[in-house]
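In keeping with the milestone schedule agreed at the kick-off meeting, the structural modelling team has produced records for the first pair of proteins. Each record is given below as a sequence line and a C-alpha cell line. The laboratory manager (R.T.) confirmed that both were archived under the project's standard naming scheme.
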Amino acid sequence: MSTLDSLGKNIFYLILIFNAYIVLKNFTLVRRLINSLYVSKENLKRWKSGMINLDDINNLTFDEFKYWCGEFVSGMGYANIIHVSSIKNESKDIVCKGNGRTVYVKCERYSDNSLNKFTVNIHDCKRLVGAMAHDGVCDGIIITSGFIEEACYEYVRSLQEKYKIKLIDGKRVVQLYAELHSRQKKKAA
C-alpha cells in the first residue's frame, strides 16, 4: 500500500507541476499580449501625429504594408485604390487612378531576415514595366521600405517618355509620410 501511496503522491505532484507550468506559460502570454497592445496604442498615437519610422514599416506584415501603401498613395492624391491579390500577380500590388490615368503600384517591404538586403533591384522594375506594357498602363510607382539600386533609376530614365515611374525608397517614404500628414493637419485647421 505504501508504494501505491507514493506513486499517487508522485502523480499528484506531477499534475501540480504541470498545472503550474500551464498557468505560468499563460501568464507570460497574457503579459506579452497586454504589452503588445500598449505598444500598439503608443505607435498609433505616434502615427496619428505624423511620426513614423522604418522600424514601424518593417514591423508590418506584407499585407499590412500593402494596405498601408494604399493609404499612403491615397494621401498623395491617387484615387480608386484597388488591392490586387498577390496570389494572382507578382508584378503589381495596387491599381489606382492619378490624374485620370491608371497607375500600377508595386509594394516591397523588406524584413531583417530578407535575403536581398532590403534592396529593390532592376528585375523588380522590369516586372512592373512588363505588366504596365502588357496592360497599356503608362504610370507606375514602386514603394519600398528598403533601398533602390542605382540601376533601377538608370532603367527608369532609359524608358520611353510615355512611361512615368516613381521610385520611393524607405527614407523617402518616411519623409513623404510626414509631409502628407503635415498638409492634412493644415487642411483640417
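The second protein of the pair:
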Amino acid sequence: MDRKDHPDTPFHLLFVCTGNTCRSPMAEVVARKAAERRGLTQLEVRSAGVAAFPGMGAAGGAIRASRRRGLDLEGHRSRPLDPELVAWADLVLTMSPSHLGGVVAAGGGDHAAVITNVQRVLPGPGDGSGDGPDPTGGVPDPFGGPDELYEVTMEELERLVDEVMDRIEASLRMGGESGGARNPGQGTEPGEGEGPSRSKGGESGEEGASS
C-alpha cells in the first residue's frame, strides 16, 4: 500500500525485550507519549518479550520511573512474542542483539533491528547504507536493580525513542518508502491474549524473568 495515497494508514511499532516487564513496556509508554506530542495519530505501539510469562505486571522500578514522567505502567500485562504479533508490526525494535533471534524465528527479520541501531532498517538523512551486522550492545537490562538503574534506563530509552520517532515521522512524510521497515498497513491485527502460554526459557513474575 502506498502511504502517499493512504496517509492515515496505521503504522505499527513493536518493542521487544526478554520478560516484557521492564525495557520494552517502558519504551512503549515513552513512544506513545511522544506520538501524542508529535500528533502522530496513525502510530500504534505495543511490546512483547521473547521469554515472557503472559499476564505479569511491570517491574516496580519501571512503574516508578514511568510515574515520575507522568506515564502509567500500572495496567501493563506482559505478553510473549509470537508470529502473529510480529506480523502485525511494521517495525520491530529489540532491546539487545540477543532478542533479534526470536524476532527472526517469528518471521520478522526483514523489519527488525536493535533499538540502538535503528538506521539498519529505517535510514535517515546522513546515514550510511544501513547494511552489515549490528555493532551495538543495545540497552542494558535494569531488572533486579535499584530505582537509580531504572532511571538511567528510562533516560536512555527516552533518547533512543526520540530518535526512532524522528525517523518514523520522516518516513511517514515520505510515504513510508525509506528503509527496511515494512510498508505500513501490510500487517495483521493480532488476537488479544493469544500466543504460547510460556516461551522457552521464560521465568515467571517480576522476580523470575528479566526484561
